[in-house]
Amino acid sequence: MIVTVGEDRLHVSRDPLPEGASLAAPATAAPASGAPAAGPVAAGDPPPPAVAKASSGAGPPTAPPPAAAPAEVPESGTKIESPSVGLFWRSPSPGAPPFVEVGQQIAAGETVAIVEVMKLMNHVASPVDGVVTAILVENGAPVEFGQAIVVVDPQG
Amino acid sequence: MPKLRRVLIANRGEIAVRVIRACFDEGIESVLAVSAADRESLGAELADRVVVIGPAAAAESYLDLDRVVSAAKVSECDGLHPGYGFLSERPELAAACAEGGIAFVGPSEEAMRRSGDKATARALARELGVPINEGSDVVGSEQQAREVAERIGYPVLLKAAGGGGGRGMRRVEAATELAGAWAQASGEAEAAFGDGRIFVERYVRHARHVEVQVLGDGRGGAIHVGHRDCTLQRRYQKLIEEAPAYGLPPALDAEIKDASRRMISALGYAGAATCEFLVDPDRGSAGFLEINARLQVEHPVSEMVTGVDIVREQLRIAGGEGISAGQEEIEVSGHAIEVRINAESPARDFAPSPGTLAKWVVPEGTGVRVDTACFPGWTIPPHYDSLLAKLIVGGADRTDALERTRRALRHLRVEGVETTAGFALDLLGDADVVAGRVHTRWVEEEFIDGWNASNEAAAAASNEEAA
What we know:
The complex is a heterodimer of chains A (156) and B (467). With 156 residues, chain A is an all-beta fold. Chain A is 0% helix and 29% strand. A 6-stranded mixed beta sheet of chain A has the order 1-2-7-6-4-9, with no helix packed on it. Chain B is α+β, with helices and mostly antiparallel strands. Chain B is built from 15 helices and 21 strands. The radius of gyration of chain B is 22 Å and the shape is globular. Chain B starts with 5 loop residues before the first strand and ends with a helix. The relative contact order of chain B is 0.11. Classes of the chains: A mainly beta (156), B alpha+beta (467). Chains A and B meet through loops of A and strand 3 and helix 3 of B.
């Protein structure tokens, strides 16, 4: 399901998540070297947040690497997939802290990442309560529709 | 500008395969944007790279302009080929590409706006002295439409200015029918194209649909690549196309080719365009209808009789290399016929017939070309149109081409879905088709009832035999 609020789209999936047949380069990077930095937090408050603020003009600035470099996908847990082709962003704006880190407890509906499609910021929300066990894409990397981007363990 | 290096193909099915092939021939890397339903498609297998852009629904994949342009950007393409249908005639796509530094394989935003809008295209034609079918500019009210109809005489056609494919189009036989037809046509045009503008045109009863293939270099240079006849249609959907258009008076033949070149040249148009004309065989005259600002489904028949690779030319033009041939080098030789093979059931009013291809064997070889994305075992996704393949057959002349096309159709083996191949075979065997005594409404008015009757009779006979 995709909820549109202004220029933001919120993608919530309750489907059983099939293996995202990613055609990107094979896994090389370790999960998630988040670079938290000072700066206002524009979104990412506890639930129900997700559909709040992410202005279309202030997209994260860094150039994407040529190909996504997904980490290894854990066997268990709920794989959250990208709702679109686009660029994967871990934080609501440049310099802002990431939405989530590995090990963090999150609630269903909470934003885990943004997929930017032509300046349109699609907030990707977790469909379940749980603990983030992996962030599979590097900040700023291109992603495809259906590609697993974040794993949440509902048992955690 | 250097030639293109990597091109995103924003389409699917046979035309995606066709463009991938042209990229291969030009030494360009192909990146295919696919929906989740097309991950296993032939195009996905053949492309150098595949980007999944969205779910199966076209609105969230092939029709989503942002996703398509985003796919081109994240895969670092320097060109984008839109194919036909989907976003191919959206000036916004040309604009977004220009803004993103991506060469759009097609005309500029402005040239597309001017050529794609029927009203401005007609105005251009009039300015250049190109013959136009008698009619009006855009009319704003039923009353205005009535005045035009009285002036040119019934029957008339009401047509959507922003449309095509028969939507927003109504034939009006007499004044009493005008009010209803006006409401229907403008409502439908508004719903389908978000543009309720309508114009009125004289209805030509035995019209032939003839179109001229043109290539423009974007700097005012243009050549034509001959013409095609697309008269055999059903509900404004083309069934069979031929090149060249047969039996045109020599003066008319030269006039429409020249007129088409002049229009594309005046538009500063880049790439492949088609100028459509309605030919009135009773009067020996032609009237300009519209410009299609994209590659057309039936482009292969022109390729077969001229040897020009229209898609490669499109890529060359978009990369700034210009057109590879001059007008004097374009020679039409022989005759070519294209049959659209759709996954439809002609016996059930052409209802779509999706499914899995248990068998797919095509009689390809010299003079028989099959443009398709089909392969044995492929499951046709139900989300998109029903075109399975285009069978394109060349011959020394029209008679030879017709005979060879029928032979090829008889050797096509498809199991798992119903197709229109048998219907096309019957059509191409009809005496009126062989003699060229057809018009754009001929299939519906003269052919289909008889075909249905004999089809039912044959079915009944075989049931009896089985019993």
